[in-house]
Write a structure and sequence with these properties.
The structure is a homodimer. By secondary structure, chain A is of the alpha+beta class. Chain A has one domain: Alpha-Beta Plaits. A 4-stranded antiparallel beta sheet of chain A has the order 2-3-1-4. Chains A and B meet through strand 1, helix 1, strand 2, strand 3 and strand 4 of A and strand 1, helix 1, strand 2, strand 3 and strand 4 of B.
């Protein structure tokens, strides 16, 4: 599993519309891509115009070049791109052995 | 649930020792903190000295001031702090409705 980590900044005041759009983009476009496992969007508490889009792919190649060079990438960007205040900063991460859950609630 | 997102840069060449240390710090110190749910560490693919520490807490206050002002914070920093190339950038995030899993594998 590979984590796609997209650090997103949106225009002020567009939170509700952006959250609706990215939910739609995730469920109608990204969820159908090859190698997609799961995706979620988190809203910044200190930085209210900052979002993290966290997507789990089977492999790095499923995201790039796979999804990035598919026709569906343009569909996705048409849905979410208008909200971006600047280009998202995207990097990928791999799991390490450091993972702990609370024994009672994790 | 609140996500603590710590963006960490370590000194070159210290990956294996850092990963051992942060796994130990997570399991021996952070996992015992009040309000802790789960924690994991992801290693950068493009930026090999970059790590994300992602911790789920019940509430923002469980992390700060809770854990941050407890005696255990010094224990944690004694374990992982020596590896930091610069102070970690820590912000908090809240879930949004935008969450999708693959129906077959998510």
């Amino acid at each position: 599993m590979i984590l796609e980590h997209a650090d997103i900044r949106i225009a002020p005041g567009a939170n509700a519309a952006f959250e609706e759009a990215i939910q739609r983009g995730l469920s109608t476009v990204i969820a159908k891509a090859g190698g997609f496992r799961s995706g979620k969007v988190m809203r910044g508490i200190e930085s209210t115009e900052r979002y993290l889009l966290l997507i789990e792919w089977d492999t790095l190649e499923d995201h790039t070049p796979g999804f990035r060079e598919s026709p569906q990438f343009a569909e996705w960007r048409a849905i979410v791109g208008p909200f971006f205040a600047q280009p998202p900063v995207v990097e990928h991460f791999a799991a390490t052995a450091a993972q702990v859950s609370s024994p009672t609630r994790g």
